[in-house]
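Obj.: predict assembly geometry.
Materials: sequence records (below).
Method: joint structure prediction, all chains together.
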Amino acid sequence: DGGITQSPKYLFRKEGQNVTLSCEQNLNHDAMYWYRQDPGQGLRLIYYSQIVNDFQKGDIAEGYSVSREKKESFPLTVTSAQKNPTAFYLCDSSGGHNSYDEQYFGPGTRLTVT
Amino acid sequence: QQPVQSPQAVILREGEDAVINCSSSKALYSVHWYRQKHGEAPVFLMILLKGGEQKGHDKISASFNEKKQQSSLYLTASQLSYSGTYFCGTDRYSGGGADGLTFGKGTHLIIQP
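Observations (raw structure tokens):
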């Protein structure tokens, strides 16, 4: 079955530690995205990549980093510079290069930093 | 420029209809609608495109008024499974490229038996 996987589902870290969230897709999609969701809020775009070896900052990129070395994978690192890292992180992908292509979300990773 | 959704919340009896609105302060190329259940990822419902094309769910309809920069989602004869939070997403840039979406804060829909 084609889809997007994110791991782990729940992640706990101490303040000051970097943590990397995994996102893998086997849909052969070119574009991949990372969003963050806080309680009672909509999703906010962190980073996105339209093609391998290229990525752009979204609306709230500070304190985060990404890489896109393979088409299937788009890991997100939450660094110690991110002031409020506790959130629900969602990865999604899109098959085309247009805003009207359907986007499919992975199941998400809930990160708690104490 | 985050789109504005209304109402913030609505409670219905099963079988009743609901309308959820999404307004933007900038020109839109496409509007995406998602439903999210508590603790889960958003699920794609529909895309509406400038020019009138729609892609998506066969039991949910929507409209897109380009001039007013608004979209509305129509849920008719609501079922218990329709409960959740509905989000609209609009293009970050008006050109229609794959640059990600800007989402509204959501509309909470509760369907009671």
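Conclusions so far: Chain A touches chain B at residues 30-31, 33, 35, 40-45, 48, 50, 56, 58-59, 90, 94, 96-108 (CB under 8 Å).
To do: check interface contacts against the pulldown list.
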